[in-house]
Structure formats: structure tokens, C-alpha cells
Amino acid sequence: DTGVSQDPRHKITKRGQNVTFRCDPISEHNRLYWYRQTLGQGPEFLTYFQNEAQLEKSRLLSDRFSAERPKGSFSTLEIQRTEQGDSAMYLCASSLAGVGHEQFFGPGTRLTVL
Amino acid sequence: QKEVEQNSGPLSVPEGAIASLNCTYSDRGSQSFFWYRQYSGKSPELIMFIYSNGDKEDGRFTAQLNKASQYVSLLIRDSQPSDSATYLCAVTGGSYIPTFGRGTSLIVHP
To answer: Which among A42, B19, B25, B56 counts the fewest CB atoms within 10 Å?
Structure first.
């Protein structure tokens, strides 16, 4: 395992459908983060896990978004009843615990909601 | 609200020149500072991190941190066309959640 992987890399869906994305972090990393990035902006924090515990969730995140990391390894991000405004790149990153440990990003999942 | 500010650019420099990218942050409690490079359509890639005031050098890259003035910069020496990308500044405090700037677009022309 040489890096963070995400699946799928691209997803096109119709408004109102549910989508689920998967992230596999670097194996020894116990922290996992989800971000959303739109054109011309930096990554926007959504939520993060330490092991299987979801420790923080952005107040900007609507109830349509949910994330899990059931065994402290891979994570899933689900968006229910997608809207056109959900179109973005969804990035996953992982790191070791502790202040200052740098995050390593996966390739991202590009979501297009028609 | 924690803010990280970067000039969106583009910053255009000739090949071989020094590119200077700047970032300011609002949270005085910030502890860790990161520079990421992001090519169009790709995910961010970590270039450097710095925790202490002063300079940190890694090859052609130098990160500079001034906590009193709340800015961090990235210098790229001998700029190459392959350095053309968006450079993201990220700042982390005790919450372990980084705040990213919107990035500065760098163009290195031959």
C-alpha cells in the first residue's frame, strides 16, 4: 500500500439520487479526513475520524451527508438526495495522530450531479 | 473564524527565476504550516511543512515562517515549467483540522 486510494474516481448522477464514495487510507494512519473542493477554492473540511470514531463534523455539512469508518480502516461518504450544488471533487486524506502530522491525499472522486 | 489568505494570482515568473508565494493566517494559536502543490485536475501533494519560526529548506524549496507577523511563505528557486501549478497553504492548530487557503496559481514560462 503506497498511498491513499479512492473509488470511484468519477461519478455522474442525477439530482435526487444517493451516492457513496470509498476511501482506503495509508495502512498505518489512524486519522482519516474528508474534504470537498470546488474550482478555484482550497479543500473545505467535511469530517474526520480517529480510528473508528468520528471526532468532528463541519457545521456546513448538511444532514444529507454521512460518513462511516466502521473498523477504523476504510471509510465511506454517502450523499443522499444529491443536489446540483453537491458537484465537486471529494478528497480523502489520512495522517498519523498528533499535531503537525502531515496529511496525504487520495486522487479524489469527482462528482457531477445533473 | 480561522482564515488563511493567499493571493489567487496568477503569479508568472520566467524559467530559472525565484518564485515567492505568500500566505497569511488569522489564528495566533496555529502550530503547523503546510504547503501543497496541486496540478489541474489532480489532488494536493505535500511539498513542505514547517513548525518553527525561521527558514526550512528542502532542495529548491524554502519555507519561511514568521509567527509574530502571522505569515508563511514558500520560495521556489530555479523555477521550472513543471512547477506550474496551484500552491495551497494549510494551517493547523490544536484541533488537528487544517484550514486551507484558496491557493496561488503559479505559471513558469520558458
So the answer is: B56
